[in-house]
Amino acid sequence: MPETTNDGSFILYDLKVEVIKPRGEHVCSHTVGDYFLLRGEQLSIPEGQFSIYSLAALMPHLTVHQRELNENDWMMTDDIIACPDPHCGGLFMITRTNKTVIRRSDTSVVPKDAKDRRALIPRLVYPNGIKAG
Asked: Which whole-number Å values give the CA distances from 92 to 4, 22, 30, 66, 82, in the listed order?
């Protein structure tokens, strides 16, 4: 069950994503030990480099691993992700490090109790004055 607070905040795990020993040979620019950190919405690469293609493959997993999961959820144990290049043996390990408290007001302007969220989207007006939607 996700941790809840009464002050409009929520908890996310901080993550470390590291290049680990490959299964086979690296053909991409991965170096074992290279890593990046994710704290809340902020990603940092302290040293080395990280391929944007690998990052794109990892992105869907990151927000899931930041959140509390049911112990039976397969995402609790599937924390090693393969490089998206089918010819590369690169592997990436996602590790939860700390917990960070995030204030909802710092991440969204949409009211939690908004009934019709579509009404919050401003109507688009094109330069020629024609309204969209």
From this structure: 30, 9, 10, 16, 6
Give the pLDDT confidence of 22-46 residue by residue, as tens digits.
777 777 888 889 899 999 889 999 8
d(CA 65, CA 13): 7
* Rounded Cα gap, residues 69 and 3, in angstroms: 11
Q: Number of structural domains, the chain?
A: 1
For residue 3, tell me if it sits in a domain.
Answer: no
| Domain annotation covers residue 91 | yes
Q: Is residue 115 part of a domain?
A: no
**Residue of 92, 83, 84 whose CA lies nearest to 36:** 92
Q: How confident is the model over 39-93, as pLDDT tens digits?
A: 988 999 987 778 888 888 899 999 999 998 888 888 888 899 988 888 888 899 9
Let me know the angle formed at the C-alpha of 108 by 4 and 14, rounded to the nearest 5 degrees.
55
In a domain, 116, yes or no: no
17 in Cβ contact with 55 (< 8 Å): no
- Model confidence, pTM: 0.76
Per DSSP, helices labelled H in 1-133 are 52-65, 104-107
